[in-house]
Amino acid sequence: MLWNKARPSDNVTDTRQSPSNRLPPSKKLVIALGAAALSGAVALGSLTAPQEADPASPPVSEVTPENTEDLDLAFVRAVLGDTEDTWRALFQSLDQPYPEPTLTLFEQGVTSGCGYASSAVGPFYCPDNQALYLDLGFFRKMAQRMSDFGAFAQAYVIAHEVGHHVQTRLGLSRPFDEALGAGHPTAGDNGLEVRAELQADCLAGVWAHHAQQRLNWLEPGDLQAALEAAAVFGDDYRRGNQTTGPMPETFTHGTSAQRVRWFERGFEQGRIEQCDTFSANPL
Fold first, then answer.
1. What are phi and psi of 117, to 5 degrees?
2. Using CA atoms, how far apart are residues 103 and 72, in angstroms rounded to an integer?
3. Could you tell me the residue ranges of all domains in the chain?
4. What is the rounded distance in angstroms from the CA atom of residue 233 to the CA atom of residue 159?
5. What pTM was computed for the model?
């Protein structure tokens, strides 16, 4: 992935090695990607990346990171910057402004707008302050457990959390939000929480579609790696690696096949309206 083609975002705050963020936990909700008990690799089908120019997108200029000693930070800024460019253009097509989320890098734990979260939660989005939170140690752990957790697979993780921001701003996940606010159960196979997570996967695919049209930055194997990442986050894959085996009634993110299918759908179509997981039957 030629990520240095992207415009770096100014909305990244680096709080790594900042002990002031490590406070007692809170019970407030965060929307998390989650990554427990991940191991091995999943073989997935390949896709052909779209190559056409996107006339609605801003011009591209290749960027060289200012701080070459911290490529991790430069990478995160580049990916977030391109999500900003992509979603700004898509929101404009809907006659809406795109409020850019912030992204905070942290270590061990962080006090977010939704309360305290440890690194064990994984990358997450807090709707209360429209912010993403990421411990880069998550990427290092995934690289040790997957056959290829390269740059585009990491970009997919960030884009998934941005997808939660998009669905919140556009009201796409209203059934889940309303059920959550009313205290109704949302977990379970084909449940509202699963549908919200699959919608974020699809929106990540929409971003990837338009980013590739504009930047032509994907290299051989990039898309395969992102699909593999989507698969290992599936409830059946993660919980199948535990002694009890998969329990559909506890699913919160969708199966591996579902996550791959919805990311592919977003990538192939590049259209927000194709991501209506709440009306889809079956998922």
1. -140, 135
2. 13
3. 3-21+30-36+50-275
4. 14
5. 0.78
